[in-house]
Amino acid sequence: MSEKRAAKILAILRRTYPAPSNVSRGLTPFEVLVITIISQNTADRNTRKAFENLSKHAIIAPEALSNTKIHDIERWLRPAGLYRRKARTIKNISKMLAEKKTDDLEHILNMSVEQARTRLMQFPGVGPKTADVLLLFSARKPTIPVDTHVYRVTKRLHLCSENDSVKTTREALQKLFRPSDYLDVHLLLIAHGRNYCKARKPRCTPCPLHNLCPSDESAEKYWVA
pTM of the predicted model, to two decimals? Predict the structure, then answer.
């Protein structure tokens, strides 16, 4: 894959969308973990509503949530969907951290990326994307979380191979971009997936990347060697 083409794509995305903001600013690593779990398979507005509900009624810390009744957590998380599963996940992780059955998050986030990812994925309900979000947003570790938008847009732009897994897609992106750009790459690919490169009906004709996208057969290709 061409690093020059990747750089061109990133430059266009930066011109197209507002500068990405750090949504985790001011949040503790545990709060970032909680909001990322809440965000699974739901829209941003639902995530915000559920997180606000939880924040109003409980202290978002392991000790507090481990002692909170599960049905209360479920009720507060209801706007985000899958609230029973998410409440159970948050409750179980809170207990593990409160009872010191695992290292605290700060200690884990000080490990190497691979070590920290492995340790985070030992928590119930935490997969690669959730672990990488915590590593990138809370610890500024050099990784690119791959959610459904990032995965889809990356494949359509041929920034990875068609049969690449989430893991190999992440590795392909990390080879194409500089670590200092990883946060922007993650957030801008998500924005592009929501605005143009939609799952069912991608808006190829007005897409600012259409001349750089191999998936848009109608575009006049402008390849960067």
Answer: 0.89
